[in-house]
């Protein structure tokens, strides 16, 4: 029942575009209704279909309003005058049945489209009558929303760019999206719908470009002073042009490692396009787990320790000062004395024959079962940190 709708929407798309031109006159182009990607085109069809279904009620109501105002005007003596009329079964059926049918149609279309256009769902096609074959590998792009710029990491190609995204035509693109501080929204109208970028979380988006050209992406969620200029260039290239773009990025020089990322994520506005020839492996996962700073425990390691019951007394001093406060807008406010859990590690387990034989110390232990400072523990230990540096504590 729902199959003909996309074809109808495609044919009636110009009429729908004309209907909303007055509302989008300042946008420059109707990219939402005339996108370059298959996913965005299907989403545009939903707008057209929904608009047409609602017009089935709006147009007759507006026409009947004018008709009744003219037909039953005071000067028309031929109109039937019934001041005590208050019910009509036929009219009630029309008034309630028509909207109900439209709501049912909208609900069915929305339910189907919600599953077919799920941003986490891998693409089943790149265009109409072009299914994705098993041999086609999606292009992986890691996206980080910074203040106030966008970082794109290409793990397969080993490059990274700032405020510039290039994708090949007719090849599925798989985005992994996160943020460094506040929540943003990743949106390329010509390619696919928007999806949120949140710190310490990862969202996914699948899309494709079917036409070469230059487009625009931006943040669709207000994120502070530099939000208005948080835009990036989107290049849809054929395979040869995409390979050339990759080669240009590799020839640009520069390495995006932890230190470079920590400098890059500081708030800045109107950041120019920048390219990095190499990227530190696993950098995006460090961003998601909030542990780009050297020595800081990653979020997944902390959750794993908590799942095992925590670190007990051994973790009391397992904190270090965070000089660059993530919760104070990344350096835009006075730094507060924030502390974070440092990384942990375990020494390899030694066999009994390899353990050193130390003389027994009969003096009382200080602390709650902890060895005195300077004593080397035996067996497994936790390498912890306090404000002075690494301190050894026995494992519990």
TrEMBL record:
Domain Cytochrome oxidase subunit II transmembrane region profile: from-to ranges: 24-121
Membrane-topology annotation of the record: Multi-pass membrane protein
Q: Cell membrane: present as a keyword of the record?
A: yes
Q: Which residues form the Cytochrome oxidase subunit II copper A binding domain?
A: 136-248
Q: Which GO terms describe its cellular component?
A: plasma membrane
**Keywords of the record:** Cell membrane, Electron transport, Lipoprotein, Membrane, Oxidoreductase, Palmitate, Respiratory chain, Signal, Transmembrane, Transmembrane helix, Transport
The record, for Pfam families, names: COX2, COX_ARM
Main subcellular localization, coarse class?
membrane
> Which compartment or compartments is the protein found in?
Cell membrane
* Span list, region Disordered: 352-396
Q: Does the keyword Transmembrane apply?
A: yes
Family matches, as InterPro entries? CcO_II (IPR045187), CcO_II-like_C (IPR002429), COX_ARM (IPR010514), Cupredoxin (IPR008972), CuRO_UO_II (IPR034227), Cyt_c_oxidase_su2_TM_dom (IPR011759), Cyt_c_oxidase_su2_TM_sf (IPR036257), Cyt_o_ubiquinol_oxidase_su2 (IPR006333)
GO BP, sorted A to Z: ATP synthesis coupled electron transport
Transmembrane feature ranges = 46-70, 91-113
Indicate the family of this protein.
Answer: Belongs to the cytochrome c oxidase subunit 2 family.
Output this protein's name.
Ubiquinol oxidase polypeptide II
Which organism encodes this protein? Caenibius tardaugens NBRC 16725
